[in-house]
Structure prediction request, 243 residues.
Amino acid sequence: MVQVCLNGSRGAVDGAAVPLTPQAMADSAAEAVAAGATDIHVHPKTPCGRDTLSSRFVADTVRALRARVAVPVGVTTGAWAEPDPSARLERIRDWTVLPDHASVNWHEPGAEEIAAALIGLGVGVEAGIWSGTDGAARFAVSPLRSQVLRVLAEVTDTSPDTAENTARILLTDLGHALPRRPVLLHGEDGGAWPVLRLAGRLGLATRIGLEDTLLLPDGERALSNAQLVTGALSQYGSAQRRS
Prediction:
């Protein structure tokens, strides 16, 4: 599986290719799916471009995407969109249009409660386990670890020289916590392509998109999420053949 992460916390300053409105996200998603993406992760935005968990904007975004694509659509529940855990939980419980899945960062306050609420709503949970945090240790003792849709192993090391090793360490840490759940492994910025190639060699799901990197494998600026997906499928396939 190659998931496309359409925008992340990026904004207009990151370039016109980053989709910020529901229509732009839907257009970008349709192009990425046509290029081979099989799953979508998106950050709904306010009109001023800020990440939000507001029921209105989540509904507008999910509806727009589903009108254009027939693959699963997931959203973030990151604490930066709503720092107060209680308010974040209330926002999620107010959603009127539910995504197929949502990422929950296990190192963030309130993660267990938010994941439980999502599962109760019938929304799949991507358990975000970040390198450099205690997320893996928390997940290892979570009563919800066997109920999540998959583990989103996020390598926050952005160095192209060390990101692969950091990914291997994270996977080792997760090995003690995983109750046979699927793993999606990905990196970011300078670590995005080395970690994606590692995912290919290991046969793990991965993701790519303008959230994770603005650059193609050759260092050129990406013009679209679809262009990144095309590059990812090529890099992933080559890594698999060499493994």
Q: What stands out?
A: Strands lie at 2-5, 39-42, 73-76, 101-105, 124-130, 150-154, 183-186, 205-208. The first helix runs from residue 22 to 35.
